[in-house]
Amino acid sequence: MDSVGPNPAKNGLKYWCQDETRIGLKTIERKKITACGVKPIGKVQWNFKAYYLYGAVAPQTGENFWLEFSHLDGQCFQIFLDNLAAEYPEHLNVVQLDNGKFHHSSQLKIPDNILLVFQPPGASRIESNRESMAIYKTRIELGTV
Question: Which CATH architecture fits 13-20+50-142?
Answer without folding.
Answer: 2-Layer Sandwich (3.30)
